[in-house]
Amino acid sequence: MDRGAVAEIDLGAVADNLGLIRKITQRPVIAVVKADAYGHGAVEVSKRLVAEGVSCLAVAFSEEGVRLRNAGIDAPILVFFDKSTSDFFDSHLIPVIHDVPSAVRFSEEAKKRGSRLVVHIEIDTGMGRLGLHSERLMDDIAAIAGLDGLIVEGLMSHFSDADMAERSYAEEQLRKFAEVREKALPILGRHVPCHIANSAAVLSFSEAYLDAVRPGLVLYGYSPFSDSREPSTAGKGGSPALDLRPAMTVRTRVLSVRRLRKGTPVSYGRTFVTERESLVAVLPVGYADGYGRILSNNAEVLIGGMRAPVIGRVCMDLMMADVTGVEGVAEGDEVILIGKQGGEEITVHEIAGRAGTISYEVLTTLGNRSKRVYK
Fold this sequence. Notes:
The chain is 31% helix and 23% strand.
């Protein structure tokens, strides 16, 4: 038996979610596929998105873009954070410019190569991370636009509240971006696309759609709003505007079934002791596979269409579930860690809530450490 979990990725769900985003926004989509498409596999997901006609892909660092190019993907690729130079020219990637010195380096490389490089400029409207932000902001935009070899084809910013929990701050960020946009376009001498709308804005903030939207999480079937819910309610409802389809199901199989007497401790530290004669399923998944130790005695899995509690400490390679109430459990039976089985469902939001984190972390951790299969 293979160790770990299998992540089944439904590319049709990704395509359907893209269609819903287009329908509600009526804007070109810059599809965010960084972090290996949030654990879903950037190459496979990107190929499907390109086939569906997305206008641009977006990654965090140039090596991610190079990997997509090596896989034969020829769509425009925007790179959010990288300041290196050679990959952008060799693989025809689009850097996001955060400061004048890095723009100068790109310009010098363009002149050296006798080529031109398309760039977007990021404006820091309140994220406090990267982007032009000083009182010389307009001068900086003019300086970048005036550099030889660079073609400014976009202005962007980034909301600091991924789930729009505090809407007033997002509104202030959008107001600042609108001011910069109004002043910058005459400097640039033409209209360039402006974008700021993340997944939360796609779902709830139509004023932020501007010239393009930049969704990530919603492409994969999840609403960022559900991350703020309690574990008991997390994941039971997506966006009221979009009927999103989760693209990832994470499953494994029962490694062993053991009958334990009442009073038997289970796993490290004896944090769980059976209160009755119990049937325990041992699963070949542990924290080394991305199923966090914090889920010890604090989560459920699906076996035989029923919920079974995770008992004892999650180990490096194994975890245990109490299947006393599940009839006929046997070695090799399918177990769902995230997804549907029968009439039950365990969502990413539920696991995130129990782990005290957000769905993004669960998807990238479990997705990137699981064996992926596609349908």
